[in-house]
Amino acid sequence: MKRRILAAVLAASVFLSGCATYQAGSLSVSEQLKRFEPVPGKASIYVCRIPAVLVARGVKTVVYVDNEAIGTLRQNSFVHTVVEPGKHGVLLRHDGINAGAGGFMPFEVSAGEVRFFWVGVTGKGWGVLTVDNFDSEQEARECVLGAEYSVPGAAQ
């Protein structure tokens, strides 16, 4: 009897915990976003997941900007949102072996600014999932240009 109760509790917790659902965005929107055009009066935010190795390859990461899910990343994908000028924050929540909250990065943007962040695992795939600035805008654009556009999935 105890085993049945334990099994039911475990099944319910797995069911209710939800998984990050990856959903690719439309190709036409992706092509438009890859022009990196500023949005008048707003700031354009790109978050790109760099290629991963080892177990990090299968981890899906939900990206939140100001506590709103803007999409799920897997390796070689990106999400995008538009925000008002001012102070904001990017938060990661991921599935996988070490599921839970990942990195958090506060940022401030101006009207017309296009801002890029990368998501990846430190330590050549053995470290922690984090969010940070790219070393250069060229590197950021290359990440987005080589990535698939993702939009929020149903289970977020």
Strand and helix map with partners:
Elements: H1 2-17, E1 23-24, H2 27-33, E2 43-49, E3 61-65, E4 68-73, E5 77-83, E6 86-94, E7 100-109, E8 114-121, E9 129-132, H3 137-145, E10 148-151
Parallel strand pairs: 2-8, 5-10
Antiparallel strand pairs: 1-10, 2-5, 3-4, 3-6, 6-7, 8-9
Short description:
This protein is α+β, with helices and mostly antiparallel strands and 156 residues long. The chain is 21% helix and 40% strand. It has a single domain (20-151), classed as Domain of unknown function DUF5300 (Immunoglobulin-like, Sandwich), CATH 2.60.40.
Structural commentary:
- With 156 residues, this protein is of the alpha+beta class.
- The protein has one domain: Immunoglobulin-like.
- The protein has 3 helices and 10 strands.
- The chain has helices at 2-17, 27-33, 137-145, and strands at 23-24, 43-49, 61-65, 68-73, 77-83, 86-94, 100-109, 114-121, 129-132, 148-151.
- The strands form 2 sheets. The protein has a 6-stranded mixed sheet with strand order 1-10-5-2-8-9, with helices on one face. A 4-stranded antiparallel sheet has the order 4-3-6-7, with no helix packed on it.
- The protein is globular and about 40 Å long.
- The protein starts with a helix and ends in a 5-residue tail after the last strand.
- The model is unreliable at 1-18 (pLDDT under 50).
- This is DUF2846 domain-containing protein.
- Residues 1-22 form the signal peptide.
- Keywords: Signal.
